[in-house]
Design goal:
The chain is of the alpha+beta class. It folds into 2 domains: 278 residues, Aminopeptidase, CATH 3.40.630.10; 111 residues, Alpha-Beta Plaits (2-Layer Sandwich), CATH 3.30.70. It is built from 10 helices and 20 strands. The strands form 6 sheets. It has a 6-stranded mixed β-sheet with strand order 1-4-8-5-9-18, sandwiched between helices. Strands 6-7-20-19 form a 4-stranded antiparallel β-sheet. A hairpin with a 2-residue loop joins strand 6 and strand 7. Helix 4 crosses helix 10 and helix 6 packs antiparallel against helix 7. Bound molecules: zinc ion. The site of zinc ion has 6 residues, from helix 4.
Length: 404
């Protein structure tokens, strides 16, 4: 540990700086659809990462396709990505991934931080994952003070659409995954004890649009074709696919349709989140969705359309990925942290990196809880603790003590 102590001690003195920056960042709304807030956040990050002396660029994110309230396809603009590269020609290259967006939009009630006690802050994105971005930054700052830093290169990619499933940044994630040796992402630990996420399910997002025929509910009821009723029948069948294949879940998460109740509604739509343990499950889901839709399509005056598809593939802990997990756990042990990993149904960019062949650990971020809710909190000492783990991993790769 001797060669690493200087950098680790320096991190130990950074708690107040990290906490102050975290509060400033979390008080900036950067919901995935708030492009102004994301731009402000990008400027903050550029400024914070500047001392690292890396090549910095903001990269435009391709648009994503959505189904709007009228049931029509529409392209939606997404926030820019921030990219930094340092020593890209080094033999070992480490990719650091994070996201600046949060699930809390500009009109959400949850906008500012408050202290719950002197060790805990409740705030939007403090844990998922503005705290994680600080862990990423401070680990890199520690590495850049280390004498053997030139043995490794690193690349940072911070996207702005992760909470949407990274539809626009997926291509860039694949590109950066392919040109690096090891991947770290800074999603929060799975629980307040710090447990890492291991195996992750894959995911898909679908929207079913049902069109019927509008009619006056009193005068011409029989002429109408009720899109809400037709969609409801279809939904019941889609939901009944749950339990038919191991580990596959189908969540009807959003439904929308109709208007004034004296009109037979001619439009209804629903959005569905699918989770799958393996890539083989994709064809099963797609086939069954197609079958259900085809059955309901046959009703007179009713028309269905199915949009969407599978975005992220399952991540498995095998081969070099397993070795990396073991190295992270052993390194944490040297710092007195007892870590382990556990499977989760949640997805993140670690799925994307794994699908592109990059061994990665994706929950090196902070400890906290209740993410994606107004009760999200961070355990503040985990900022320094996780930054030390991150820094020690980087330094050990630089010193050749770790390799894959
Ligand atoms: Zn996250």
């Amino acid at each position: 540990m001797q060669p690493y102590l200087g950098a680790l001690d320096w991190l130990g003195s950074q708690q107040d700086n990290m906490t102050q920056t975290l509060i400033r960042w979390a008080n900036i709304n950067s919901g995935s659809e708030n492009l102004t807030g994301l731009a402000t956040m990008t400027t903050e990050l550029e400024h914070a990462f500047a001392p690292l002396g890396a090549n910095v660029a903001t990269l435009p994110t391709p648009t994503r396709q959505i189904v709007n309230a009228k049931g029509e396809l529409e392209q939606q603009a997404l926030g820019d990505m921030l990219s930094l590269r340092q020593r890209p020609d080094a033999p070992v290259r480490i990719l650091l991934c994070g996201h600046m967006d949060t699930v809390f939009g500009a009109d959400h009630e949850f906008q500012v931080c408050r202290h719950l006690d002197d060790q805990t802050i409740n705030g939007p994105g403090v844990t998922d994952m503005k705290g994680g971005l600080l862990v990423m930054l401070y680990g890199l700052m520690a590495l850049e003070q280390f004498t053997l830093k030139d043995n490794i290169g690193w690349e940072v990619l911070i996207n702005a659409d992760e909470e949407l499933g990274s539809p626009g940044s997926a291509k860039m994630l694949e590109t950066v995954a392919k040109r690096n040796t090891v991947g770290f992402a800074f999603e929060p630990a799975t629980n307040a004890d710090g447990t890492l996420a291991g195996q992750r399910k894959g995911s898909g997002k679908f929207t079913v649009v049902c069109r019927g025929r509008a009619a006056h509910a009193g005068r011409h009821f029989a002429k109408g074709r009720n899109a809400i009723v037709a969609l409801s029948q279809c939904i019941t069948e889609l939901a009944s696919l749950n339990g038919q294949r191991d580990g596959v879940t189908i969540n009807i998460g959003h439904i929308h349709g109709g208007g004034p109740i004296n009109v037979v509604p001619d439009l209804a739509q629903c959005s569905i989140d699918v989770r799958l343990p393996s890539k083989d499950d994709e064809a099963w889901v797609q086939d069954n969705f197609n079958k259900v839709i085809a059955t309901h399509q046959q009703h007179d005056g009713i028309e269905f359309a199915l949009h969407g598809g599978f975005g992220r593939q399952a991540k498995h802990i095998t081969g070099k990925t397993k070795r990396l997990y073991e190295q992270v756990v052993a390194t944490a042990g040297e710092l007195g942290m007892a870590l382990d990993w556990q499977a989760t149904g949640g997805c993140c960019d670690g799925n994307n990196l794994a699908a592109a062949g990059l061994p990665n650990v994706d929950t090196l971020g902070v400890r906290g809880g209740n993410i994606h809710s107004s009760d999200e909190y961070i355990i503040l000492p985990s900022l320094v603790e996780r930054a030390q783990l991150h820094a020690l991993l980087l330094m050990k790769f630089a010193a050749g003590e770790l390799s894959l």
